[in-house]
Design brief:
Shape: globular
Strand content: 15-25%
Largest sheet: 4 strands, parallel
CATH superfamily: Divalent-metal-dependent TIM barrel enzymes
Helix content: 25-40%
Strand order of the largest sheet: 1-2-3-6
Number of helices: 5
Order of helices and strands: EHEHEEEHEHH
Distance between the termini: 35 Å
Number of strands: 6
Radius of gyration: 18 Å
CATH architecture: Alpha-Beta Barrel
Number of domains: 1
Structural class: alpha/beta
């Protein structure tokens, strides 16, 4: 409630390894019960994709209460799955299907590329940025088929001198 006057929105996310709220369905139930205008859901795409029955629960979501969608894909390495940028992994079709479903439900909010791995930490920042840019283009142009700004054409609004 203290965040409302400051126009701060809070996105609540389930944690599969959490103590009590492990799925986005449980997190959605809590958000819905709280019934606060600035409390919404953060949806992790990999959590949804890892549980086929969870995809059926998407129909219960209200797009205006979905505040953020975290995106990553993964590849199976020798001992564990490694998170990679969307469009680079093994689940491109499933991820694209999930994003299309969210778009059809009315979600027009923000996406977060949630890819933390040791390989990216060792690469040059410019290389990682180019991969992130390619992932954003894959998301915007190929999956959601939105027009995206041309490179080097984004301009910030300037304040008018008073």
């Amino acid at each position: 409630m203290l965040a409302i006057p400051m126009n701060i929105r809070i996105a609540y996310q389930a944690s599969p390894n959490g103590h009590s709220i492990k799925s986005f369905g449980q997190a959605w139930d809590l958000v819905w019960q709280a019934d606060m205008p600035n409390l919404g859901l953060c949806l992790d795409a990999l959590d949804v994709l890892s549980c086929p029955s969870a995809q059926d629960d998407l129909d219960f979501l209200e797009a205006n209460k979905l505040f953020l969608v975290q995106l990553a894909d993964h590849i199976d390495a020798q001992r564990a799955a490694v998170h990679v940028f969307p469009g680079e992994g093994e689940h491109n079709e499933a991820l694209a299907g999930l994003l299309t479903t969210l778009h059809e439900l009315g979600y027009r909010g923000n996406y977060n590329l949630a890819v933390l791995n040791d390989d990216y930490r060792q690469m040059a920042a410019g290389t990682v940025a180019r991969r992130a840019s390619a992932s954003a283009l894959w998301l915007g142009q190929d999956v959601l088929q939105r027009s995206v700004p041309l490179p080097n054409q984004i301009r910030l609004k300037r304040r008018h001198a008073a």
